[in-house]
């Protein structure tokens, strides 16, 4: 009995290459069709207003800010504990601003100002300059590479814990800080990747700031035509960064969903904001303005009080009141920003209108 041999036909390398190219082309074609179906607007083509209006049912600016504050205050115990944990970790692992640098800056400003800062309004002006120096990092110590890594991890964990606790609170569950700290850190790597994308999208804004610094030094801004061209280019670069980061900030919340990948989160966030990007951008700008105003309202009285106490009791100059206040306010700011963005995301998702 003779055995039959099975002949295996070997594929031609050229045929395999052709099939591979066809598959790649088909995948690109499907991806492009899906993208165009999700994004109805086309570059360099006019879209009429009736074709791009997409609903976004949102409270007013003040109403939504008050809603965020009330939501956080309704569960103030757990969120204050989270802010306290962030502050303690920052002090232990990263450190604080230098009180000696602040004292030196205050004395130098008082000695060199002459009659500029005389009287009550002069004290407020001096406090304002100290405040601008503080928020620009003028009294902060230079961080080592390890401290920068610790600071990034602490900020990410605080963001993720705030989002995790708010998601469970709004779902009707009772949460504890311990549960948030243990369970919220799972998407830290995807969140970090989305954060890197966000930083990359801020490059045009950074170029505009670098250009402004160079133009101010060379006197370019004093010339009419050159200054106009500079401000046009700088404005376009700033708008480009704002356009990009609007959806990426929303993606920082989307990426915390179970099983969500970073670039999938960016794509999903882009689909959410399409047709209403400007309105969401204005909400984020309002959040930044509101946060700055809160820092002014809190820090200016503290600076005035500390300066008065130092003049009455010079021994208090060694007490790190300002650095502690900076860390405490920074921790509350991260919790507030995370809560605001998450609740904004909830409002956007609740209005599930299709792209216009």
Write a short abstract of this structure.
The protein is mostly helical and 356 residues long.
Give the topology, please.
Layout: H1 13-38, H2 49-52, H3 61-74, H4 76-94, H5 99-112, H6 119-135, H7 145-170, H8 177-183, H9 188-201, H10 203-218, H11 224-254, H12 262-273, H13 277-312, H14 321-350
Which descriptors would you attach to this protein?
356 residues; mainly alpha; 14 helices; 75% helix; globular; disordered N terminus
Description:
By secondary structure, the protein is mainly α. It has a domain at 187-273. The protein is 75% helix and 0% strand. It is built from 14 helices and no strands. The protein has helices at residues 13-38, 49-52, 61-74, 76-94, 99-112, 119-135, 145-170, 177-183, 188-201, 203-218, 224-254, 262-273, 277-312, 321-350. Helix 3 packs across helix 14 and helix 11 packs across helix 14 (321-350). It is globular. The chain starts with 12 loop residues before the first helix and ends in a 6-residue tail after the last helix.
């Amino acid at each position: 009995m003779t055995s039959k041999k099975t002949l295996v036909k070997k594929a031609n390398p050229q045929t395999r290459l052709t099939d591979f190219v066809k598959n790649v082309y088909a995948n690109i074609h499907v991806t492009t069709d899906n993208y165009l179906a999700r994004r109805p607007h086309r570059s360099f083509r006019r879209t009429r207003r009736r074709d791009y209006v997409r609903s976004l049912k949102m409270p007013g600016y003040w109403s939504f800010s008050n809603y965020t504050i009330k939501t956080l205050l309704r569960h103030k115990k757990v969120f204050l504990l989270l802010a306290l944990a962030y502050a303690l970790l920052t002090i232990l692992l990263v450190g604080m601003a230098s009180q000696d640098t602040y004292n030196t800056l205050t004395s130098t400003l008082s000695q060199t100002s002459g009659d500029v800062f005389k009287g009550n309004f002069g004290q407020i002006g001096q406090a304002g300059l100290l405040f601008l120096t503080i928020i620009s990092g003028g009294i902060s110590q230079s961080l080592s590479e390890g401290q920068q890594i610790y600071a990034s991890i602490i900020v990410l964990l605080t963001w993720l814990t705030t989002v995790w606790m708010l998601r469970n609170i709004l779902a009707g569950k009772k949460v504890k800080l311990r549960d948030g700290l243990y369970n919220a850190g799972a998407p830290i790597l995807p969140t970090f990747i989305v954060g890197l994308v966000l930083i990359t999208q801020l490059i045009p804004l950074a170029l505009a700031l670098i250009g402004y610094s160079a133009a101010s030094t060379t006197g370019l801004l004093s010339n009419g035509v050159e200054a106009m061209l500079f401000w046009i280019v700088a404005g376009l670069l700033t708008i480009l960064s704002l356009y990009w980061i609007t959806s990426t900030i929303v993606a920082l919340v989307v990426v915390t969903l179970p099983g969500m990948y970073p670039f999938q989160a960016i794509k999903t966030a882009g689909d959410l904001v399409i047709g209403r990007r400007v309105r969401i951008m204005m909400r984020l700008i309002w959040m930044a303005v509101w946060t700055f105003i809160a820092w002014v309202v809190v820090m200016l009285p503290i600076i005035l009080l500390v300066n008065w106490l130092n003049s009455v009791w010079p021994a208090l100059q060694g007490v790190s009141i300002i650095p502690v206040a900076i860390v405490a306010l920074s921790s509350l700011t991260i919790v507030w920003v995370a809560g605001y963005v998450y609740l904004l995301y909830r409002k956007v998702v609740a209005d599930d209108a299709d792209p216009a």
